[in-house]
Amino acid sequence: MKLHLIELIQLRIPLLSPFVTSFGTQTHRDALLVHVSSDSAEGWGECVALAAPVYSPEYAHGAAAIIEQFFAPVLLGQEQLSAADVAPLLQHFYGHQMAKAAVEAAVLDAELRAQQLSFAAFLGVERDRVPSGVSVGIQASIERLVEVVAGYLAEGYQRIKIKIQPGWDVAPVSALRAEFGDIPLQVDANSAYTLDDIALLRDLDQFELLLIEQPLYEDDIRLHGVLAAQLTTPVCLDESILSLRSAADAIALRAAGVINIKPGRVGGYLEAVRIHDLAVRSGVPVWCGGMLETGVGRAANAALAALPGFSMVGDISASDRFYAQDITEPVLMQDGWIEVPSTPGLGRVPLPDVLAEFEVSRTRILPG
Ligand code: OSB
Ligand code: MG
Predict the structure, then answer these.
(1) In angstroms, rounded to a whole number, what is the distance separating the alpha carbons of residues 100 and 140?
(2) What is 198-243 written as a DSSP string?
(3) 316 CA: nearest ligand 1 atom
């Protein structure tokens, strides 16, 4: 297809409650949406970059800037563009995976809708629902954590992940085991520890967690291997996995017993599928991570997570985990399961009135 418009829409959507991690507190999601129009269809993609570069180097306004200045002119200049061309066309621009993923998603959505094909059918997945897990932020007290987790378990969530950081690790995990027994439980450190904390991290082994996610720094792949050799809890990498290449390195270095695949972090859904395929060949289980997505990204993640290698429960919760009002028809969770969308495209499009309510700015980019 030939694109004749790329629109960048910045949104600021309030979260139901603050989401606290070792890298900071989010009270809103500053989502960037990419909207493309072509001769055959329209498409929507969501950029998962946060408002500030605290989880990864990317941030929402930076993503908009690089798309406007560098990516859009290349894509608008193509006579024939397919989603599979987007990554190769942008490869010579370093980094900016989340920005690249967002434009690729928008083109893919348009292409699938032009072909009347669902993302699930494109991927060839057989499952029509995926199990739903929830990521729980750092709470003001252990009592409050127990209350919050009890609420999610009552709603039906099949797996609990809690955020940890030094001073909020052994005690909250121990309290959850005491209160809820052997529920499927895992922790996410978002790089808050170093190898000096090894005794403390080994202390967590007694709780038989499903995994510990990203204990060390992003580029400490080798050190994650050193750590993993000394823990019984599987080490799962999130921030460190930026591409098929870093996934291959992590697997070879035995640094990732498990991989959290986030399509945005690795440059798009197509690279996510390649990492999935490598993980399957290597016997490494994967699960689909989340970045507080609106329905646009959340629905697409549900289809990706239906691929067979996604053998662990992911961070795909319902829209109402984070939002009183999602910008699309909500993604629903029922009895612990999220439906894989079956409509043409990635699965959800923004509702115009809701978009207007949360819109901060809109940039229209036309062929030059
Ligand atoms: O590390 O997995 C993470 C949210 C924002 C940034 C990083 C992470 C997260 C989450 C939330 O844990 C996952 C979700 O969207 O449910
Ligand atoms: Mg994580």
Answers:
(1) 36
(2) HHHHHHGGGG--S-EE--S-TT-HHHHHHHHTT-SSPEEESTT--S
(3) 16
Give tens-digit pLDDT for 304-337. Answer: 999 999 999 999 999 999 999 999 999 999 999 9
Q: What is the pTM of this model?
A: 0.98
From residue 208, give the alpha-carbon distance in Å to each of 142, 224, 288: 19, 19, 21
- Size of the chain, expressed as the number of residues it contains: 368
Best residue for ligand 1 mutational test, from 291, 294, 322 (most atoms within 8 Å of Cβ): 291
The rounded Å distance from CA 213 to ligand 2 centre is 6
Helix axes 170-180, 142-155, angle to 10 degrees: 50
CB burial of 85-104 (b: ≥16 within 10 Å; e: otherwise) equals: ebbebbeeeeebbbbbbbbb
φ, ψ (nearest 5 deg) of residue 94: -65, 140
Q: How many Cβ atoms from other residues are within 10 Å of residue 151's Cβ?
A: 12
State both tokens at 239: 């921030």
Task: Give pLDDT tens digits for 235-258.
Answer: 999 999 999 999 999 999 999 999
| Three-state SS at 300 | helix
Can you name the residues that pair with 13 across neighbouring β-strands?
29
Nearest to 296 by CA among 366, 358, 206: 358
Strand order in the sheet with 159-163: 133-136, 159-163, 185-188, 212-213, 235-237, 258-261, 286-288
In this structure, which residue's CA is closest to atom 4 in ligand 1?
291
CA 29 to centroid of chain Cα atoms: 13
Q: Are 93 and 70 in contact (CB under 8 A)?
A: yes
